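S1.2 Input.
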Amino acid sequence: MSDAVFGLKYISREEACFGLQLYFFAANLIGGLAFTILTPMIMLRSGNDTVIMGSVQAAFGIGGVTGGLALSAWGGPKRKIDGVLLGMAGSGLLGMTLLGIGKGPTIWMVAAFLTMLFMPILNGSNQAI
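S1.3 Output.
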């Protein structure tokens, strides 16, 4: 318990850490809402095609594994905040935006791959901070 209290006091004193935590709070809240409506959106737009939905889900998995392998080989950026910002831009702005505006399975699969490709960089950099 004392470790948790120490951590909370530290984060509240350090403006940059507090800002980073607020940033992650907002991104995870919005991302959680987006992922909640993703399956119904794809099923509606694909005419309830479960093969397309499964292909998009597979693309998420392949992207995550690829991103994890790339991060393991590369080690991530030297400045970890750059990894957080790169990950947010690649996953959120690029991947999730493409998922939302995409109208077909090819775009959805590419977008799903990109969304998860950047997640290991984002999360790995955040954990290192």
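S1.4 Remarks. The first helix runs from residue 2 to 13.
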